[in-house]
Amino acid sequence: MEIEIISFGQITEFINNQKIEVDGITDTDAFKQYLEDRFPALKGLKYKLALNKNIVQQNTEITNQATIAIMPPFSGG
Amino acid sequence: MSAERYNRQIILKGFGEEAQQKLLRAKVLVIGAGGLGCPALQYLAAAGIGHIGIVDDDTISLSNLHRQILFTTADIGKLKAEVAGKRLQEMNPQIGIIRHPIRLQKNNILDILSRYDYILDGTDNFESRYLVNDACSLLNKPLIFAAVSSFEGQLAVFNAPDHSTLAPGTNYRDLFPEAPDKGEIPNCAENGVIGVLPGILGTMAAAETIKLITKIGQPLTNKILNYNLLTQEQYIINISHGNGYTLPKTVDDFLNMDYQDTSEAPQGYIEIDASELVKLQQLESTILIDVRERHEVPVLDKQIYTQVPMSEFAAFLNKDFYQKQVVLICQHGIRSVAAAEAMQEKYGDAKKIYSLKGGIVKWRDYFLKS
């Protein structure tokens, strides 16, 4: 299954925008676990996922060619 | 009201005299007269918002001027709320400008926000962001949110029902239920910001405010826009209601929340000024630690200041050292507080922990001559 990853803010420093090929990942909980295993720097950070431009508030099914955005909070002004 | 002043927007199709009257009747509070607040204030005042409040307790410094474009070199040292208020009044004498040169805290924010219809958050720290979000939620005030980091920005409208579906508004905690830990997300003072970025986001926030008031277009209710200056790309994400967070439902709940107001005494460690640094430095059992990254300037004398960048601080905490007093220093005294908290947690009363308030920038003269 192909998933497009889009990242924002300081998360772009270790996760580039990219298309990845993954097997066995069918929902957002599993995808989050996959991300944190592959990019351990993500573990200590506050961030939110958006699946196909919708904020993920609970475990949600992922289908082929989904886009998942990884967004950290900004406070600067 | 002089119709001529606003003629070019009144003649716009879909705007007209009616929308102009709505602006005139609106009361908008802009929190923070900084990089976001300055351009927002300028456009809101020019557009003819009838009552504009400005909250900022800070004074103007030289390093503000590349992005805080209401201020001039001659204004350095003056209160932002006062200077911004005076300048906006000169720009548009037909509107009311109310200056609030104070810091918003739990005990004053509800009183001030309740006097306005729309709140624009242009603050620069998470404590204020959550304080403002929760106060707006409690008072049911629409909140226009803008924030920047490096070359990117975020823009959203919270607490306003959706224009078409009338679905109840979401708020900042639907995105990020809890504030990040201190030091987790770098701020502008530490990370830098290009002046035009908050200019763009602040202007977009003013546009959202005008859209909400005049009911034109589709404001970013229940949406967050991510903006990238380097690519000019925008990415809009739909926000739905989250769970697992607590919004204060009553004033008492609100007053019991912990926003880490700077007025509340810090736990354990002590924030000091340069004169106290000098005294501590003379004690043999004091270690001075510069927690800035290695590329940052000015470079301090390595004989006097041990360099332990924040990125290496966790490893340093595992090492033993004999000194009993620890003075932590960084550029603006923000990261050094995070380092002080971490040290305090590890050592408790075993060592005395200090953080230089205002950092090297504030005490530049002292660091340059030593």
Automatic annotation (TrEMBL), chain A:
InterPro entries: Beta-grasp_dom_sf, Mopterin_synth/thiamin_S_b, ThiS/MoaD-like. This is Molybdopterin synthase sulfur carrier subunit. It comes from Pedobacter zeae.
From TrEMBL, chain B:
Belongs to the HesA/MoeB/ThiF family. Residues 324-368 form the Rhodanese domain. CDD domains: RHOD, ThiF_MoeB_HesA_family. Pfam families: Rhodanese, ThiF. This is Molybdopterin-synthase adenylyltransferase. Catalyzes the adenylation by ATP of the carboxyl group of the C-terminal glycine of sulfur carrier protein MoaD. GO terms for cellular component: cytosol. It catalyses: [molybdopterin-synthase sulfur-carrier protein]-C-terminal Gly-Gly + ATP + H(+) = [molybdopterin-synthase sulfur-carrier protein]-C-terminal Gly-Gly-AMP + diphosphate.
